[in-house]
Write a structure and sequence with these properties.
alpha/beta, four-stranded parallel sheet
Length: about 550
């Protein structure tokens, strides 16, 4: 019987080398005070502006709804103290040649003294204010279109509103504030009389009561476990409205930087990431989607405000094509060897699973005796999504893992990357030639970039056997398209595929010698390879 081998479904020798992409440019913007920082954000984004929007730098209450208003008038968003206009802001208003300043907030937030200073500069003023923060947000909303929807956010905290502020600007959606348990009647009337498709409620039931859902048209909640996950969830909801070439980052621990930044970000349909001391997994997931499309990263604040760990996550973004074939293979061989060796399971400590013939619980053993320790090691190789399929159980206060009833005794070797199918800059399906017990298979394996590192995300399995002459024919098809030097490189790779078929190794050496001795012009090389194919078919039929 003829020997058979698994055919590589994506072609024998479509080998791709690593191609490096340019890293995003990074820049920090900040001043000595929050007011100077807001002026610097303005000067970064505007050469001049007919309008400017002015909000309090001391109290977030009236300021939160201002971002979409700034986008409507293509205006920067500037800060002031309640009683005095900072020199940096005064200078910025002059530089911009502003004709009208829109003041958002009542006299308690921004006094008449400040307004009079602005007027003394020859600048007109208009004020949008209500008797409280909820009414002020409503007055701003009346100046905006609601057809794209509205945001409802708590009036007691700024975090959720900040995450939505750049999106609110991009889509011209009002940000309306509400108490926790009951929507103010005037806001309820406004919503029920306006034409909008969705009422996006920002925050969970502990922030805004579920009772409010029933009082607004088409409620849709967006929230995460904390302000940073909520930031991700909001951006992910509106991801198709975001231009990812330029991204912005500001601290999630104050409101003024991100608020002023939101006006700049919405100017270019960009988003604002809220940064913590430690980059969040959610942020990394979003970067996986955008990948190499990010060209510029603008951070508001110095290293004490937004540390370099957060900045590096954005600025040192790896692209799938930055990784070589060897890096793919090393990740596979090292990760799968660790997993398949099963040195983290104690097979003498087995607890059956009732009703299961396939799985049992096995105790974890040192140095990976806890779920956290094992996942920490496995996460060097496998994605969070892949590892989420592992099922751990606590038994007698010890960590166990559900696994096959019988201890597997096998190991596969990953020989060569056959083909890269780049789904995006952050996702790749690599066809890997693998050997197991003398058999060969092409396994499509999905890789992703997570935490800026290459990770294994999913396995599939080859399942079709073909006789080895078909594999050789695919090989000849590929080298016919190449020149002599490339064909010799391909032969070296081809030897790896059929290492255990010694009788064919000798024949490949014969092909290699023939190609080395070829001295004709490049346009005759294809016909030369075709003659090699005819000779192989004769050899194959004789065996």
């Amino acid at each position: 019987m003829k020997k058979k081998i698994l055919l590589l479904t994506l072609g024998i020798l479509c080998l791709t080398s690593s191609i490096a992409f340019a890293k995003p440019k990074t820049e920090r913007i900040y001043g000595n005070t929050k007011y100077e920082t807001s002026a610097k954000i303005s000067s970064y984004g505007w050469e001049n502006s007919k309008y400017a929007v002015l909000v309090s730098g001391e109290d977030f209450a009236d300021a939160l709804s201002a971002s979409p208003l700034a986008k409507k008038y293509n205006a920067p968003l500037l800060l002031t103290t309640p009683k005095e206009l900072d020199k940096s802001i005064k200078d910025e208003l002059k530089r911009l040649n502003v004709e009208t300043v829109i003041i958002v907030g009542g006299e308690g937030a921004i006094s008449n003294e400040v307004e009079n200073v602005i007027k003394s500069l020859g600048i007109n003023t208009t004020r949008l204010a209500g008797k409280n923060r909820y009414d002020t947000s409503l007055e701003v909303a009346k100046k905006l279109d609601t057809s794209n929807g509205v945001f409802l956010a708590t009036g007691y905290n700024y975090a959720d509103s900040l995450s939505a502020s750049s999106i609110a600007g991009i889509k011209q959606m009002p940000i309306l504030l509400t108490p926790e348990n009951e929507l103010p009647k005037n806001i309820s009337d406004f919503l029920n009389n306006s034409n909008h498709h969705f009422s996006y409620i920002l925050g969970g039931p502990s922030v805004i009561s579920e009772a409010i859902d029933a009082s607004v048209p088409n409620p849709y909640r967006i929230y995460g476990d904390d302000r940073y996950e909520t930031n991700y969830d909001i951006l992910n909801t509106f991801i198709n409205n975001i231009d990812s070439e330029k991204v912005y980052m500001a601290s999630g621990m104050n409101y003024h930087d991100a608020l002023c930044l939101s006006a700049l970000a919405s100017k270019t349909n960009s988003c604002v990431f809220l940064a913590n001391n430690k980059p969040s997994n959610k942020l990394d997931d979003l970067l996986n989607y955008w990948g190499g499309s990010i060209k510029d990263v603008i951070v508001i604040g110095d290293e004490n405000t937004v540390n370099n760990d957060c900045l590096n996550l954005l600025s040192n973004i790896n692209n799938m094509k930055d990784f070589s074939s060897d890096e793919f293979l090393n990740k596979l061989n090292n990760g799968c060897k660790f997993y398949n060796d099963l040195n983290f399971l104690d097979f003498n400590k087995k607890v059956p699973i009732p009703g299961s013939d396939l799985y049992s619980n096995y105790r974890l053993k040192a140095p990976y005796e806890t779920k956290e320790k094992l996942l920490n090691e496995l996460s060097k190789y496998f994605s969070r999504a892949y590892l989420s399929n592992l099922k751990f159980n606590k038994i007698n206060n010890e960590d166990y893992l559900e696994f096959y009833q019988t201890e597997p005794k096998y190991s596969s070797d990953f020989l060569v990357v056959n083909n890269f199918n780049y789904i995006s800059d952050k996702v790749c399906v690599a066809s890997i030639w693998t050997q197991l017990h003398g058999s060969f298979s092409s396994i499509p394996i999905t890789f992703i970039i997570e935490d800026n590192e290459l990770k294994i995300d999913n396995f599939s399995h080859g399942d079709k056997f073909y006789e080895i002459n078909i594999v050789f024919n695919k090989f000849f098809d590929e080298i016919k398209k190449q020149n002599k030097s490339d064909a010799l490189i391909s032969i070296d790779k081809f030897k790896s595929y059929i290492g255990n078929f010694l009788d064919y190794q000798d024949y490949i050496s014969k092909i290699e010698t023939s190609i080395k001795n070829f001295n004709g012009p490049d346009d005759e090389f294809s016909a030369f390879v075709e003659n090699l194919r005819v000779d192989f078919i004769k050899f194959y039929n004789a065996h």
